[in-house]
Amino acid sequence: MTAVTDTLNIPAARPQRKTPKGTFDIVFRNASFLSALFVLVLLAGIMLSMVIGGWPAFKTFGLGFITGSQWDTQADVYGAWPAIVGTLSTALIALLIGVPLSLGIAVYLTQLAPPWFKQPVSTTIELLAAVPSIIYGMWGLFVFVPLFAAYVQVPLSNIVEGMPVVGTILYSRSPSGLGILTAGIILAFMIIPFIASIVRDMLDQIPSVLRESAYGIGATTWEVVRHVLVPQAGVSIIGAIMLGLGRALGETMAVTFVVGNANRLSGSVMDPGSTIASRIANEFNEALGLQLNALIALGCILFFVTFVVLVIARILVSRVKSF
């Protein structure tokens, strides 16, 4: 007689996949393969066209195209450094403002908000995510920029004028409201709905038994969020932040309205600047010859920066999964 605790030699259950025989199965399999292959071909085509189109600019200026700060269409001299710094600066400002607000919104909606308040706020966030970027740009130019100039730039410039370091970063030589900081704030408004929505959905998917168990042993709401919810949704939170960063790096119309579109590099975030996307949007229609190649090369650099961001995101996700 075999005891219950004895080891039973039960063959491991392995899923058996049938070989497709029907016409529909073969068509489905090939259609799926072609769909996946289409993405790779499309990406390769975009990369190849960008490199070929921008190669004359890279060949003419060499590394100086990336490190140069002069963008003179009359002299046919082009340097991408101010646009690269502007792109990274506005995206960084957007993340610094948008990520804490997004996480706060998501945690409040999933843990603290009463039911009568949760649904209207959730619907509003989803509506904000659907607003076209040009609407954000127009609102920023006609509403936010005058208020920002009158109530932030002018008083702040009067306070920090002459101060070392702080005065350099926050003093505005022409407090018109347009600038790198303004563009970063508008971008933060744009990425908050995306990050907040994704994080809220991920926190809602966590089994309630986990948080109830934590509350049962005496944990506070902060401890539940810090030690239960954030570790469980860590991968999704990183993915949401990287999605927001990708939109901030590539945003064009809204930034073009409020960044100032200046072809110079300033040490102050209050001064006008430019981003790669805004410069392409402003000049592409009228560009010819080497200027057109330089703009395509800018697009190639933006493509590379976005690729690096995605690689970093994958590394962070893999490190979080390993814990």
What does this structure look like?
- There is one protein chain.
- With 323 residues, the protein is mainly α.
- The protein has helices at residues 23-61, 64-67, 81-112, 115-130, 133-160, 166-170, 180-205, 208-216, 221-232, 234-250, 253-258, 276-283, 289-322; strands at residues 71-72, 77-78.
- A hairpin with a 4-residue loop joins strand 1 and strand 2 (77-78).
- It starts with 22 loop residues before the first helix and ends with a helix.
Give the gist of this structure.
With 323 residues, this protein is mainly alpha-helical. The chain has helices spanning 23-61, 64-67, 81-112, 115-130, 133-160, 166-170, 180-205, 208-216, 221-232, 234-250, 253-258, 276-283, 289-322, and strands at residues 71-72, 77-78. A hairpin with a 4-residue loop joins strand 1 and strand 2.
